[in-house]
Structure formats: C-alpha cells, structure tokens
Amino acid sequence: MSVPKNARTRHEKLVELIEHHRTLYHVYDKEEITPAALDSLKHELAELETAHPELITPQSPSQRIAGAPLPGFKKVRHSVPQWSLNDAFTPEDITEFDARVRRFLHESFDTPRPTYLCELKIDGLKVVLTYEKGILTTAATRGDGVVGEDVTHNVRTIESVPLSLPRAIDLVVEGEVWLPESELARINKEREKNGDPVFANPRNAAAGTIRQLDPRIAASRKLDTFIYELASTSEKRPQDQLGELAFMRELGFKVNPHFVHAQTIPDIVAFWETWKKKGHAQDYWIDGVVVKVNEAQYEEKLGYTGKGPRFAIAFKFPAEQVTTVVEGIELQVGRTGVLTPVAHLRPVSVAGTTVSRATLHNEDEITRLDVRIGDTVVLQKAGDIIPDIVRVLPELRTGKEKKFTWPKKVAACGGDGSIERVPGTSAWRCVNRDSAVFAKRRLRHFASRAALNIEGLGRETAELLVDEGLVSTFDDLFTLAVGDVLTLEGFAEISAEKLIANIKKSSHVSLERLLYGISIDHVGEETARLVAEHFGTIDRVRKATREELAAIHGVGEVVADSIYEWFRAPEKRAILDRLLSHLTIARAQARAQGAFSGKTFVITGTLSSMSREEAEAKIRALGGSASSSISKKTSYLVAGESAGSKLEKARSLGVSVLSEAEFVRMLA
C-alpha cells in the first residue's frame, strides 16, 4: 500500500526537525523548544509511522538514541550500553506496559509475579561513573549510548560524588547531575550583572557547567547528583532494585529518598499522582516517575529492545508545552468591544487537559509570531493559565498555509459591524458598542464574582433579561420584581425569589468591585483597587482630573484617560446616578504602608506554598500592588513552576525575577 504524498512530506519534515532539536538539546545543551514540545513532535512521528510502517527507516528518530559526543571533548566508549527509556503518559499506558511485561515473562515463568520500584525522574544531565578498585577513574556523559564525553575533571568537583569507595570494588553506576533552583537564581543574578546570557532552567545550567573545560567553574557552582542504577559490579549483585539502591547508598552514593515499592498498578498511579502535584516543591526538577521491574531475575529475562529496556518505562507528567496545528482563526468580541483573535487548534492534551483553542491576543502578536492558518505551533499551558501559542515552527510549512487577514467588519459587533484600532494600543474594537450584544456582556460582567457577585445571574439569565427588555442598563437590575423574573423561561417562584434576593444582597458593595463591574475600558481588578484605595469614595473618583488619576502608582496615562472620559460621558453619568440610588458603597481604605509600598509585583506560573490570590493579598497587605501584566514599571516578577512568556519579557525589560523561595523570604 503506497503512502500518501502529504504523509510522506510530513514525515520527512518531522524527521528533519526532530533531529535538529534533539542534536541541539543532547549535544550542545541548547533549547529552542522545550523537551515537552519535542516529545509532542516525536509522538506525532510515532503515530504517523504506526499508520504507515513503510516510512520507518533505521535513521528515523523513533529507532535510535539521540546525541553524539561534543567535538573537542575526549571520547569515552561505555563498558555498558546506555539506553533510552520508552515513555508512558497515562495510567492506561502503564497498564499496557505491565501487560507486555507479563506476556514476555510467561514464556519463561509459569506464574510470574513482577512488582515495580517507582523512582523520581530527575530532569538533569545523565552521568556514568566508573570505579576501578574503588577509585573513580572516569565520569562520562551518555552521548549516543555507545560513546560519551569525558567530564571527569568537572564531576570530581561535585561533593556528592565519592572519589573513592569503602571497598576496592570495580563498579559502574549511572545517575543524574542536577543544579538546585536556588543555586540557579544565584548564578543567573551573577550572569546578569556581568552582562552574560542567563540559563533558561536548571537542566541547561547543569549541562553547561559539566561541559566547561575549566573545572574551577564547576567547583564554583553547587552541582549535585542522584545515583539510581547499578550497571555492573565485581561483587555479588543484589537480587532486586530495592537492594541495588541500598547497595549504592552503602558505598557512599547519594540516592534519592523518594521511591516506593509498588505491588499493583494503582500503587504506581498513586505515586505518580502524588508527585505530579508536589514535585515542583523540590529544589530540583522532576519530569515524571521511572517505573522499573523490581526483581533482578525478571529484569535479566526481559532484557532490551533496539531502543531501550523492556523492564522499565518513564511515566511522564502531563506536558505543559506541546505541538499542534492551527486550523482557523476567528475574532471574539469582549464586553468593552475589544476584538481578540482566537486560534482554533487540532485538539491536543496539554497539562492534563484537552485544548482546542488558544488566544492570539491582538494583531501585533499575530504579526510577531507570524502565525498562519495551517501552521504547526508550540502551545503552552501552565497550571490553570489560558493556553498560549509561544512560537511557530516554520520548518514544517508546506506552502499551503494562509496568512490571517484582519477584516473591516465583524458581524458580532452589531450595527453595521464596523471596527477600529484603538489609538495608542495594539487592540481593535467595535465602533458601535451600544447594541444588545454588548448590553448582555456588560450585564454578565457586572454580576460576575469579581464585581457585584450576583449568584444565579449567569450568561443565560443575562441574555434573557436583555432579550425580554427587562434590563438594558445596570440600574435596571435593582428595579426588577419577582413577577418580572417569572416571565423568563426556566424560572419558577422559588428561583425567581432567590435571584431577586441575591440582587438586593449585592447592593452593599465595595468601591473597587463597583469600579471593576461598570466596564470602564482598561480597568481590571487591580486598577480598580488602586483607584478605590487612592480616592476612597465614588464622588472623589467622579471629580478626579486626568493628572490626579495618572499620578496613581500603577495607573498610566492611557488608563487615566479612559477613566476620566467614562465619568465625563453624559450617558454614563446618567446611568451611574440611577445606579447609585440603589447601592450602599463601602468606603475604601488607603493601602497599608509596609515593606512593599511603591512596589508592583507580577506573579507567573504556579506557586506551591500558596494560591496566586493568597500571594496577591499578602503583597497588598505589605503595601504593594499586584498586576497581571509586565512593564518597565514592574518591580518584581515572581516566577513559579512553569513560568512562561512573562519570564522572558521580564528579563528583556530588566525586571528583577524572584523564585518562590525568594518571594517567601521577602514576605517574612
């Protein structure tokens, strides 16, 4: 059966791109895309070759181990071949792995009962240590699995690596060299001060350090190791993996203390789930769990395939960067009429959820990325953050990709659909923003949790209220009676009474919630809070001049103009006058003075010790401000787990970057 031309072309391009990035990553310690994104490309290649086995060649990335010795280093031929592990991503994959193990063992054992040892998969640089008569003779990188690079001069500087053993034993062990995140922060600060490029992550820093020709550089950095594999020994070998770990610890090697002897598949999955949640709290990076058959007799019988061992598998954590294809781009209209381009994607799993859409933010971002319909892109999703396209892979273009053309009219704007670019910004918006479409959006926003928090007034109810002519402006909500709500489809007496009660309850509101809820362009939660704290009352906000507004730390001229113009527009003033007759507004208190006074923080990624909301509350309690966007005025970026594009922008703007540990120390 012949392979379709488009499949063959895609295969050729994938092979070429994967080899390019694998060489950068494994040989030169450079990273244009993350390992997770590279895994996604390799997964697509494997699926393509499964569908079309004719495409498989001995040179395919799916058939060989990546990497080669770096030119300029002394070559070391490994006495024990260094294999790559196959990957698992779901509990179902682990169940299949167990089934394969049992099927293979049944050929030699009547009733095989394999158990498994689960160990943390450290994201560092693999090292192979060779001892002769108890003395360290060679430390080498994995290289291509057969030949590695001699890095003994640097590994000897690592305190956790024994230079001699308590017995005159011949031994080869394997492990991971890693750099603590706290040490990475120190090194990067020093490199920034000297004008040197910073390391992107601890893995790159560890690899870059081990491959220095001058051992004094390695000695100045606090590299560490975890040893996890006994490759060969002149003494009697332990009968299981648990015994091997104890044997290596006895000889003075540092073994990671977090492992579990799993009797069942649920035991394996439970260990994986536990570390998927708390792995980021360690000072070293963890990208999954290694699952090994524990019993030595089973391990020996299982042996190896052409690529890796049959007795072990890497159970990876959900990827936070993957690759997928842009299938279309459409414009979404927000509550203030601003248009946001959204990419429709080929569905892909990222960070544990299936994603089919990602924001492209604005016209300038589309131009910067040069993203086109049909492009293969790298998608990022950190924790619960909205998926974001971080780069395009133009190497995979076929010539059929289409550039996105910004339209002149958008039907969702209502009226004649005209749009305009907002002066001084990269945003486009609808010209006509008084249609029912926007009345519904503004009402939903007004009732949202961060604004007046009217329980029971969601999208469907807001649309019904506007469509039935019961509400056209915010103040109309507070004139509703139970009988009015009963006319709406889906409402009975109890639910109608409950909605009216919730509306009345919301009439007691704080000033910052009100300012956020009335949909002033460019005014988010933090800006509303800053303005409320500065002026204290709605009357003072209404009378504020442009200069007074712009003088608030954290409120720029564009935002100040927007607030000023909103309170000067006759139709807005009339709505506000009517609305205020129904509300009781709590006077805002001035922000406390403290260690963070005058400082603006932005938090990105996931924090392990507290939620983002808790962190922002602590910042405000110490007199600081918490923003959602990076600018030159930002004082600090707090970078949690899986920090994304904001971290890169902060570095480009010269904004100080704090690790979570450093931030917690500042709070104390």
Model description:
The chain has 668 residues and is an alpha+beta fold. It folds into six domains: 51 residues, Helix hairpin bin (Helix Hairpins, Orthogonal Bundle), CATH 1.10.287; 242 residues, 2-Layer Sandwich (D-amino Acid Aminotransferase, Chain A, domain 1); 86 residues, Nucleic acid-binding proteins (OB fold (Dihydrolipoamide Acetyltransferase, E2P), Beta Barrel), CATH 2.40.50.140; 71 residues, Orthogonal Bundle (DNA polymerase, domain 1), CATH 1.10.150.20; 77 residues, DNA polymerase, domain 1; 68 residues, Rossmann fold, CATH 3.40.50. The chain is 36% helix and 21% strand. It has 24 helices and 26 strands. Strands 12, 13, 14, 16, 17, 19 and 20 form a seven-stranded antiparallel sheet that branches. A hairpin with a 2-residue loop joins strand 13 and strand 14. Helix 1 packs antiparallel against helix 2, helix 12 crosses helix 13 and helix 16 crosses helix 17. The protein is elongated, with a radius of gyration of 30 Å. The model has no long low-confidence stretch (mean pLDDT 86).
